[in-house]
């Protein structure tokens, strides 16, 4: 894939994030702030294009506006996210095993309230020239109020199958995708600490109505079924307490 120049523009919450379904289901660990930085950088890429901008600028002012925080808080979050993102990688399922790669190949020095992101070239095929039906798109505004990285990841996994209204994920794949490793080895802990808080936040803060149901194999929960739909307009109208 080709890189083309640099992009510096005001990033707005109605900008669309588009990524391959393979990336949606890849295994990686990011903090909430790192994920937000990645999504903001993705949102300025034209997924129909044949090239990814070599350099994408994300400003603290844009970060603050999109995610509803102060500019002062955005300065700290953006700098910390950039510092950590450079060392993060992604694991893709491949025939015969897994392939690991970086998110970014270079990160511009955090200066004057902005950071420059250079996506790794190996990631470009997951961001542009995506074939019909093989990608997931949503507006930044849809994940703007979410405060949990698990909520955003589950939102993406659900939105990938939005037209079907349901999807299942094996518990093993779910753990792998969220890169939980040895965290929450008991399903009861996974449900209590990850699944239920994320579903609650998604139902409270997004336009989706989501339910889930565990499916057992013997005495062990083997699959998670998610059922989802757009909330009715009436449900989106705030009511007086």
Side by side, the strands of the main sheet go: 2-6-10-9
Helix content: 25-40%
**Distance, first to last CA:** 54 Å
Count of discrete alpha- or pi-helical segments spanning 4 or more residues:
8
The whole-number mean of residue pLDDT values reads: 90
Q: Name the overall outline.
A: globular
Q: Using DSSP, what is the number of strands?
A: 14
Query: Could you tell me the radius of gyration in angstroms?
Result: 18 Å
The amount of beta strand, in percent, is 25-35%
Instruction: Return the structural class.
Output: alpha+beta
Main sheet characteristics: 4 strands, mixed
**Multimeric organization:** single chain
How do the helices and strands follow one another from N- to C-terminus?
Answer: EEEHEHEEHHEEEEEHHEHHEE
Q: Segments where pLDDT lies below 50 for 5+ residues? A: 236-241
List the helices and strands and how they pair.
Layout (H helix, E strand, L loop, with lengths): L1 E2 L2 E2 L8 E5 H4 L2 E2 L3 H12 L7 E2 L2 E5 H8 L3 H15 L3 E6 L2 E6 L1 E4 L6 E6 L15 E5 H4 L5 H11 L6 E5 H7 L9 H19 L2 E10 L2 E11 L11
Parallel strand pairs: 1-5, 2-6
Antiparallel strand pairs: 3-11, 4-7, 6-10, 7-8, 9-10, 12-14, 13-14
């Amino acid at each position: 894939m080709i890189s083309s120049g640099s992009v510096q523009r005001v990033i707005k919450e109605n900008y669309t994030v588009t990524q391959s379904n393979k990336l949606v289901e890849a295994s990686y660990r990011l903090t909430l702030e790192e994920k937000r930085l990645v999504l903001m950088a993705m949102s300025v890429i034209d997924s129909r294009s044949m090239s990814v901008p070599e350099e994408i600028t994300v400003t603290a002012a844009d970060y603050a506006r999109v995610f509803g925080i102060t500019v002062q808080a955005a300065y700290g979050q953006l700098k910390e996210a950039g510092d950590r993102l450079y060392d993060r990688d992604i694991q893709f399922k491949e025939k015969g095993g897994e392939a690991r790669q970086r998110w970014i190949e270079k990160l511009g020095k955090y200066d004057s309230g902005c950071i420059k992101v250079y996506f790794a070239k190996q990631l470009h095929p997951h961001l542009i020239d995506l074939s019909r039906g093989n990608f997931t798109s949503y507006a930044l505004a849809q994940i703007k109020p979410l405060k949990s990285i698990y909520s955003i990841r589950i939102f993406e996994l659900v939105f990938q199958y939005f037209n079907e209204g349901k999807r299942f994920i094996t518990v093993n794949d779910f753990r792998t995708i969220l890169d939980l490793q040895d965290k929450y080895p008991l399903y009861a802990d996974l449900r209590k600490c990850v699944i239920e808080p994320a579903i609650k936040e998604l139902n409270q803060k997004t336009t989706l109505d989501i339910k889930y149901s565990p499916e057992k194999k013997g005495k062990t929960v083997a699959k998670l079924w998610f059922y989802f739909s757009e909330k009715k307009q009436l449900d989106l109208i705030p009511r007086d307490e």
